[in-house]
Amino acid sequence: MPLPSDDRxxxxxxxxxxxxxxxxHWPEERRLLxxxxxxxxxxxxxxxxxxxxxxxxxxxxDGIEPSDDPLLELRAAIYLLSGRRRxxxxxxxxxxxxxx
Length: 100
Hints:
extended; single chain; 2 helices; alpha+beta; 15% strand; two-stranded antiparallel sheet
């Protein structure tokens, strides 16, 4: 069975493009670049450190800077809050299971 994979295609902005407002669409003719392919090679263990991983829409990698779009910070905060709530619900369910 082939491994799950996903191509990452990025659209390159031109100097006149608005990069701080996600509601403004760029013209279709903007250049697309194949940035790479993500291939899943294994599943993460079900241990505590891996259960704490959440998606972060802001790239936190040296050399890659996020745009000035204010929605990025808002989305990052919402994903963090959602992750905390899911962990709390899971922990509460585990405690209830232990008492039954």
